[in-house]
Amino acid sequence: MEPAKRRILIIEDEKELAALIARHLEDSGFAVQSVFRGDAGLRAAETGTFDLILLDLMLPGMDGLEVCRHLRTRHVQTPIVMLTARNTEVDKVLGLELGADDYMAKPFGIAELTARIKALLRRIDGLAAVSATDTQPIQLAHNVRIDPRARQVIVRGKSVSLTPKEFDLLLFFTRNPGRVYSRSQLLDAVWGYSHDGYEHAVNCHINRLRAKIEVDQARPELLLTVWGVGYKLADPTTHER
Ligand code: CA
Predict the structure, then answer these.
(1) For residue 124, is pLDDT > 80?
(2) Quick one: 48 and 116 in the same domain?
(3) What is the CATH classification number for the domain harbouring 200?
(4) Residue 14 CA to ligand 1 centre (angstroms)
(5) C-alpha of residue 222 to centroid of ligand 1, in Å
(6) What's the pTM?
(7) Which carries the bigger pLDDT value, residue 124 or residue 214?
(8) Looking at the domain assignment, is residue 180 inside a domain?
């Protein structure tokens, strides 16, 4: 029996571009569904039956940032790659803050997009495989508990919803508490690639993780900034002040 095909949802109102992407992804072995409006895309994405979503920014019905925000608010954690013609820092940061996992600025090469999609899926598969063998729950300070097998985080008794990237980033830090990682090291380890300007992705994910796990987001005690270097997870055995 052939393995089930990975399913990709394309939400893109430029029909020729959507068709071109769909054809290439199908040639690469993916099953693809295309939707040409934001509101219809949100409904399709909410079924939760996709492995990855390609999401255009400017869309009729509902724009891509809204679609992304709605999905994350409703705890749909399917990886999202945002597509946009507006290659500005503001849009990048906004998209990533709202929970997108990656970003492609138009015009992009279809081969590069396909490679990026495969890398993202591989990374998620790999981290899921590692965490499946690493089944012991991890206890952090301030009553934060990570269950690698369930990919679940319990913060002071409440289950919090993390995107795949947020979870992977947190899990990565737990492997070496106290060790400082630069943004480009984190990009390399958790995203699987790095390119100029993408360090924003790390900052955004750290900020969103802090909002979810820290007692006081403005005074983090778990995910610490090491000025001029990067970030580290406070060693749970030494309570830093
Ligand atoms: Ca568009």
Answers:
(1) no
(2) yes
(3) 1.10.10.10
(4) 6
(5) 39
(6) 0.64
(7) 214
(8) yes
